[in-house]
Amino acid sequence: MHELSVMANTLEIALDQMRRQGASRIHVITLRIGELSGVVPEALTFAFEAVVIGTPAEKARLVVEVVPVLCHCPRCGNEFHPADVIYQCPTCAHISADVRGGCELELASLEVS
Ligand SMILES: [Zn+2]
Question: Any idea where the domains of the chain sit in the sequence?
Answer without folding.
Answer: 2-70+102-112
